[in-house]
Amino acid sequence: MENPALLTYLEDFLTDRRKSLMKKVIDQRTNHITVATQDVFQLHNTSAVIRSCDVFGIQNAHVIEEKFPKRIDREIAMGAQKWVTINRHSSAKECISHLRANGYQIVATSPHTDSLHLKDFDISKKSALFFGTERHGLSDEIMAAADCTLKIPMYGFTESLNISVSAAIILQTLAERMRAEGVKWELTEEEKSDLKLEWLKNNLKNSAELISHFCSK
C-alpha cells in the first residue's frame, strides 16, 4: 500500500454502513482461483461470468480478446465490473504466460470423459479456470498448455452447458470447497488495502477530484 493516508481520506466519504459492507466483502475475496474466458462471441456470457466472479468472491477475471475485441456489457454485468478486476489479453499465449508467472496452474474446462470431476479437483493449488466459446470450446493451444481439465458431472442427453451456467456451477463448488478445506485463500492485508483503494477510486463519483485535492494539500 503506497499511500495509506489517501485510503483513509477517501474512506471518510463512505457511510459507516458502506465501510462495514466493503470490509466484509473484501475479507471474502480471493486470488487463489481466477477465471479466463477465450473469445466468447456472445458478450452477455462474458459479462455473466464476471458477475459470477463477484458473487463467489473471485477478484480477478481474464478476458482473451483475440478474435472478438469488445467492451464488457455494463448493463448485463450489473455493476460487477466495478468490483472485479478485469485483465484483458490480446492472445491466449499472453494470458497463459501472465498466469503462469503469477503461480497459477492452467485448468481447462471441458466435458471430455478424461476430465476431472469437481469433487476430485485439487483445490489446494492456485488455479486459473479457462472457459471457451459456446460452439467450439477452448482452442487447441490452451488445451495443450493445460495442466489438467475439469468437467461438471452430467446425467442427461445434453453434453454441454452455456458458458455462464458452467462458470457459475464450477465457481460455486470450488469456492465452497476452498473455504471448507483449510486452503490459504485469503488476500494479504496489503492486497486488501490495495483493493479497497481501487474500489474507492472506481465507485466514488468524484474520486479524481478528491484525489487531486488530497495531493494538493
What does this structure look like?
This protein is elongated. It is 44% helix and 15% strand. The chain has helices spanning 4-11, 16-26, 43-55, 74-77, 92-101, 140-145, 163-180, 189-203, 207-216; strands at residues 33-38, 60-64, 85-89, 105-109, 116-117, 127-131, 148-151. The protein has 217 residues and is α/β, with parallel strands linked by helices. The relative contact order is 0.20.
Give a concise summary.
It contains nine helices and seven strands.
Helices and strands, with pairings:
Blueprint: H1 4-11, H2 16-26, E1 33-38, H3 43-55, E2 60-64, H4 74-77, E3 85-89, H5 92-101, E4 105-109, E5 116-117, E6 127-131, H6 140-145, E7 148-151, H7 163-180, H8 189-203, H9 207-216
Parallel strand pairs: 1-2, 1-6, 2-3, 4-6, 4-7, 5-7
Helix pairs in contact: 1-8, 3-7
> How many strand segments?
7
Mean pLDDT: 89
Q: End-to-end span in angstroms?
A: 20 Å
How many helices does DSSP assign? Answer: 9
Structural class based on helices, strands and sheet pairing: alpha/beta
What are the segments in which pLDDT stays under 50 over at least 5 consecutive residues? none
Q: Over all CA atoms, what is the radius of gyration?
A: 18 Å
> What is the overall silhouette?
elongated
Strands of the widest sheet, in order across it, are 3-2-1-6-4-7-5
> Order of helices and strands, N to C?
HHEHEHEHEEEHEHHH
Largest sheet: 7 strands, parallel
What percent of residues adopt helix (DSSP H or I)?
40-55%
Beta-strand share of residues: 5-15%
